[in-house]
Amino acid sequence: SEILYMNDEYTKKSRLLSRILRHRPDLFGVALDSQGWTDVDQLLVNVANKGTLISREELEVIVAENDKQRFIFNDDRSRIRAVQGHSGTVDLKLPFRTPPPALYHGTVRKFLASIQKQGLLPGIRHDVHLSATRETAMAVAARRGKPVVLVIETHPMVKAGLKFRRAENGVWLVSAVPPQFIRFR
Ligand code: HQG
Q1: Which of 10, 31, 108, 140 has its CA 20 to 30 A from that of 43?
Q2: Is the CB of 43 under 6 A from ligand 1?
Q3: What is the C-alpha separation between 181 and 157, in angstroms, rounded?
Q4: Is the pLDDT of residue 2 over 90?
Q5: Helices 2-18 and 56-65: angle between axes, nearest 10 degrees
Q6: 130 CA to middle of ligand 1, Å?
Q7: For position 1, what pLDDT does the model report?
Q8: What digits encode the pLDDT tens for the residues 109-147?
C-alpha cells in the first residue's frame, strides 16, 4: 500500500541519516561541528547529490516519527544531529547525571565470557549504551539473537568515579562498565 511504501522509504532514509550523522559524514561531504551538529539545508543538498532526495517535510517526519528518536533539531531547526550512537570524535556536551540504581544492558550469550572478563566496552561507539528498562534492553539484544539482560549496579560505579550521561532519547551512556558492577544472574 501507499502508506507501507512510505514507511519503508522513511526507514531507508532514516538509516542513511544515521550512517551520515553518526559514522561517516565524510562520505557525503558533510561537516559535523565538534558537538555533532550540521546545517540541515546543506545536509539535504549533499544527500541529494549522492542520489537520495529527502525533502524538508520528509525530514521533519523522519525526525518526529523515528522509533528511537535518533535525531534532534536545534532550537531554530536550522541544524540537526544524531542523539547518540556516534563513532567519530564528537562531544555531545551532555551533562553528567545521577542514574537510577539499576540500568540494563541487553546482549547475547556468545559475548558473556568476554564481558565477564573485560566488562562492557564501547566497541566502535563512544560509550556503552545502557537502557532504563529491562524491556528496552531485551529489544536491543533481540537484534542479535536470544536476549540476555545484564543488570548494572550504578551507584557503586558512581562512588568509583564513573560518570553517566543520558541522551535525549533516554539511552544512558557511560565510557565502560567494569565487570564487578555487572550482575550476571
Ligand atoms: C557487546 C541500537 C564482548 C554488547 C540499540 C553488544 C542500542 C561485548 C555489542 C544501541 C563487550 C556492541 C547500542 C565485551 C560489550 N566483549 N562483547 N567486553 N562489551 N559487548 O551495537 O548496546 O538502532 O555497539 O553487549 O537499540 O547492542 O543504532 O551496542 O552486543 O540502543 O539507534 O558488543 O544501538 O540503536 O554492539 O546497541 P553495539 P548495543 P540504533
Answers
A1: 140
A2: no
A3: 7
A4: no
A5: 80
A6: 9
A7: 42
A8: 999 999 999 999 999 888 999 999 999 999 999 999 999
Q: How far is the CA of 129 from the centre of ligand 1 (A)?
A: 7
Strand, coil or helix: what is 149? strand
Alpha helices in 19-173 (DSSP H): 40-49, 56-65, 112-118, 134-142, 154-159
> For 62-98, how does the pLDDT look when each residue is reduced to its tens digit (9 = 90+)?
999 998 999 999 999 999 999 999 997 899 999 999 9
Q: Taking the CA atoms of 184, 180, 106 and 102 in sequence, report the sign of the dihedral they define.
A: positive
The reply to whether ligand 1 has any atom less than 6 angstroms from the CB of 121 is: yes
Predicted pLDDT of residue 167: 97
Q: Say yes or no: CB of residue 118 within 6 Å of ligand 1.
A: yes
- Span from the CA of 140 to the centroid of ligand 1 (angstroms): 8
* Strand partners for 82: 71
Ligand 1 atom at shortest distance from the alpha carbon of 128: 22
